[in-house]
Amino acid sequence: MSLAAAPSQVRTAPRARLSKRIRKAADATVWIGIATLILTFLYTPIVVLVAFSFNSSRSLSWPMTGLTLDWYRKLAENDQLITAVQNSVYVAVSATALTLLIGVPAALALDRLDFPGKGVFRKLVLLPIALPGIITGISMLILFRLLGFGLSLETVIIGHATALLAVVVTQVFARLQRLPHSLDEASADLGASGLQTFFLVTLPNIRTAVIGAGILSFTLSFDEIPVTFFLTGRDNTLPMYIWSTMRRGLTPEINAVGALIVAASILLILISVLLQRERTGQGR
Amino acid sequence: MTLPLRLRKVLVLSPPLIWVVLFMFVPYTILFVFSFWEQVYPTFAPAFQLGNYQTLISDPQYLRTLLRTIKIAGLVSLFSLLLAYPYAYFLVHKVRHPALRQTLYMAVVAPLWVSYLLRAYTWKTILGTEGILNSFLVSTGILSEPSSIFLYNQTSMIVTLTYVFIPFMVMPIYAALEKIPRNLLEASADLGMGRTATFVKVTLPLSMSGVVAGFTMTFCLAFGDFIAAYLVGGPDGMMISNVIATQFGASLNWPLGSALALVMLLIVLAIISVSDRFERLGKGTFA
Fold it and tell me: Which are the contacts of B215, defined by CB distance < 8 A and separation ≥ 6?
């Protein structure tokens, strides 16, 4: 019996190993298939957007007729577009500065201070993350109207700073929570004032989080539509300009703007990845 | 010169507090008050009446649009989940190389940095009657003539919004899956559970907090969207936000728009508080 059983065991073992290997290969194929499917879904439109910015014909249809840089040349001559970009830079820089100036103390207060109404304060600050931008937009529109303010790029800046506050607060607050309070106490014991502690101890420790939050709010503000839609006056930001161009008709010129934005985004992503690497390099 | 603690507190707290009160608390309160005002064409007058809310209930178009918006946002969240969960699972459990995993994760999050407007716009150029998909299908002979079924309907809304918001689903699910201690899965295997059983009884329940967070985020974003509807929605794909925007634009009925916005705000708040409770519940069973 034992003699007869032995060879059959020898024979089934490799077969089992083989079928296990086949199953593993099938498994891997399915998973790679799923991943490929999702990445294709995410990147085909971006590739299409960039590719058609070089299309020589005016129409956005398959196949592409030839390659040209004409649409980029047109962009360089488009004064309205250049003004819109300048407006957007002005709005995004100001809104980011404002939102950092308010958001960092807000995060500090949420992490370190106790005060009456803290719960309501936190809920209000964090609300815009899930709240549709349109609600922020129209509620501020009514406020400005009742106050008798005319709409301008400055009202857009206030709107953006308010909507982006939540982004800054969550990012900075998350970092503050990982920062031991003992550092503050040590600094105070050594005779530093509150301001000195903030600028010499706290701020250097949360620096990358603040910069990261700043880059993120700049990007979001640069791209913002729902709030801008209701709060802008005669001046257009870049998305509002693109928006109004789109409603007049689709041309590869819009794709060219899009391709440039994709390029700028890649640059910003690289910067934020580098920042993240620096953060892990510090060991926190 | 150390400032007294109380004064320091006031200095740190006052800028954000003033800002939040002035630009968030006051505007939301005004929105609430405004929803009781009445329209006196071409402007509006202070009043206290429930006419705007009566209109919302009695005119079926508002309820219909609201239900359609909920349906579209729900389907967008569902499809995002069906795509995002396997992808996040694949990253956490199947990709062994940390650098590759990081890259594949970034690959899904990166599109968020590319303009939202342009990502929605591309779908318009792809799905249109003279668009890239149609001309491709005609040139390969699959279609004999361009079809108009791809654009300006609820399907094109769902495709576009899923595309735009899917990163918000991947991020929390990935974070939740990554947090599950590996030894729990090993323990489950040691106790004789198969891979499916381990997934259903261990991995899935422990990743529920990420699923709930992702679902909430995607749903709220899709629910409040009004740009995609203008680009790819058509009359059949109009969302509640588009109706609000119309009240503040062409219709010039700000009080009615405020009432609609308030309804929307309440729905979003309800969803957030339900999802908060869910997440706390999930944490409770684990701790």
Answer: B77, B81, B169, B275
- pLDDT band, very low/low/confident/very high, at B284 (cuts 50, 70, 90): very low
Using an 8 Å Cβ cutoff, are A222 and A265 in contact?
no
A92 touches chain B (CB under 8 A): no
- Residues A17-43: tens digit of each pLDDT: 778 888 888 888 888 998 999 999 999
Closest residue on chain A to B123 (Cα): A45
| pLDDT tens profile A178-229 | 888 888 888 888 888 777 888 888 888 888 889 888 988 998 899 899 999 9
CB B232 within 8 A of CB B120: yes
One domain for residues A46 and A127: no
What's phi and psi for B43, nearest 5 deg?
-130, -150
- The greatest distance separating any two alpha carbons of chain A, rounded to the nearest whole angstrom, comes to 100
Distance of CA B255 to the CA centre of its chain: 26
Which of A139, A228, A243, A271 is most worth mutating to test chain B (most B CB atoms within 10 A of its CB)?
A139
Give the tens place of pLDDT for each residue, A122-142: 888 888 887 888 999 999 999
- Write the residue in A113, A125, A132 that is nearest to B241 by C-beta: A132
Tokens of A87: 């407006």
Is A69 among the domain residues?
no
Cα gap B50→B19, rounded to integer Å: 31
Give residue B285's pLDDT band: very low, low, confident or very high (50, 70, 90).
very low
* Count: domains in chain B: 1
**ipTM of the modeled complex:** 0.85
CATH number (domain holding residue B80): 1.10.3720.10
Query: What is the model's pLDDT at position B241?
Result: 93
Distance, CA of A117 to CA of A112 (rounded, Å): 15
User: How far is Cα A206 from Cα A192, in angstroms, rounded to an integer?
Assistant: 18
- Looking at the DSSP bridge assignments, the partners of residue B39 are B44
Contact between A131 and B220 using a beta-carbon 8 Å cutoff: yes
Note whether A54 and A69 are within 8 A (CB): yes
The tokens of A177 are what?
A: 């929570």
Q: How far is CA A97 from CA A84, A86, A204, B201, B276, in A?
A: 20, 17, 18, 48, 31
Identify whether B79 is part of a domain: yes
Mutate to test the interface with B, among A24, A36, A62 (most CBs of B within 10 A): A62
Cα distance between residue B133 and residue A45, in whole Å: 11
Confidence of residue A5 (pLDDT cuts 50, 70, 90): very low
Q: Based on the domain organization, do A223 and A257 belong to the same domain? A: yes
Q: How many CB atoms lie within 10 A of CB B227?
A: 25
CA geometry: angle B268, B225, B265, nearest 5 deg: 25
Q: Which two tokens stand for residue B26?
A: 């006051």
Q: How many residues does chain A have?
A: 284
